[in-house]
Amino acid sequence: MSGDPLSAALAMIDARCVMARAILAEGQWSLNLQAHAPLMLVAPARGQFWLRVPSTGQSILLTEGDVAVVRGDLKQIMSSGPELTPTDGEALFRFHGGSTVHLSSTPDVAVVGSHIALNRTGEDLLLAALEPVTHVKATDGQAATLHWLLDRLLTEMGHDQGGSDFAARQYASLLFVEVMRGYLADPAGVPPGWLRVLATPSLAPAVHQMQADPQRSWTLEDLARTVAMSRTTFAERFREAAGTPPLAFLTHWRMRLAERALRDEDVTIAALSRSLGYSTESSFSHAFKRVHGIAPGLYRARRRMSEPAM
């Protein structure tokens, strides 16, 4: 898998928008809403609004340029004021029968919600790395891009043109990429884990090398050399950022690649073992079983049995 570390990670987790919705409002309003995917991005394309997540006790004022990332299992209240009693927003969307709820004919607030689906690996990796609610503020360099994406997303949802639904989901997926870039711009604000390593410029080249060439028999010295550090300094800084040693991180990444290959490809176990740097099929199978508790062949059979037919 080539490309920069974030691109490789996004490909691994298969992040994609499965639904985009909008609320157009003015004056006083308050709606109870829920996500329809593991993650939800919430942002004002125009104006500002309050986001309240009762289970966390958080109330956040979102203004233009801000985006909130909310775990999909958390109910949310979006409103013009945090003290207002909400009505059933999901019922309103069902009543309107589309992707946009109009609470006013002359709205001064436009709220966009993007529902982001992930594969099983993505849920395990990304949901564990994010707080229940993450408030991402656009940097100066991001503001224009975020504004353009939100405007395009809102436009596609507001016009019944051929391909509008598809286009809206693509803009929403690009919005997710831009939000991730903003989130990773400040490594100190990211909890220890795989995202923090990606966000740390002094360590990212080592991650890039591991992701680009998982077949190689990497040593600690090899990886330290890619970032021009001593072995001890590299190991300490990597463990601090990732929460795990570099070679354990490499094993974890190889197992994620294995999961995807076993789920989506018809590669043999022997070929997969070689592609991930294991000298024998047996050594790969033992490593896989330590992580998953079952052999690779059984993992493949169970996952494919659980996948719905297309």
Characterise the protein shown here:
The protein is an alpha+beta fold and 310 residues long. The protein folds into two domains: 5-185, Jelly Rolls, CATH 2.60.120; 195-306, Homeodomain-like (Arc Repressor Mutant, subunit A, Orthogonal Bundle), CATH 1.10.10. Helix content is 48%, strand content 20%. The protein has helices spanning 5-13, 89-96, 120-129, 140-158, 164-184, 194-199, 204-212, 220-226, 231-242, 246-264, 269-275, 281-292, 296-306; strands at residues 16-25, 30-33, 39-46, 48-53, 58-63, 66-71, 76-79, 87-88, 100-102, 109-117, 133-137. The strands form two sheets. It has a six-stranded mixed beta sheet with strand order 9-1-10-3-6-11. Strands 5-4-7-2-8 form a five-stranded mixed beta sheet. A hairpin with a 4-residue loop joins strand 4 and strand 5. Helix 4 runs antiparallel to helix 5, helix 8 (220-226) crosses helix 9 (231-242) and helix 10 (246-264) packs across helix 13. The longest helix is centred in the middle third of the chain and has 21 residues, at 164-184. It is elongated, with a radius of gyration of 22 Å. The two termini are 26 Å apart. The mean pLDDT is 88.
For the structure shown, list the relevant keywords.
Arc Repressor Mutant, subunit A, 20% strand, Jelly Rolls, five-stranded mixed sheet, alpha+beta, six-stranded mixed sheet
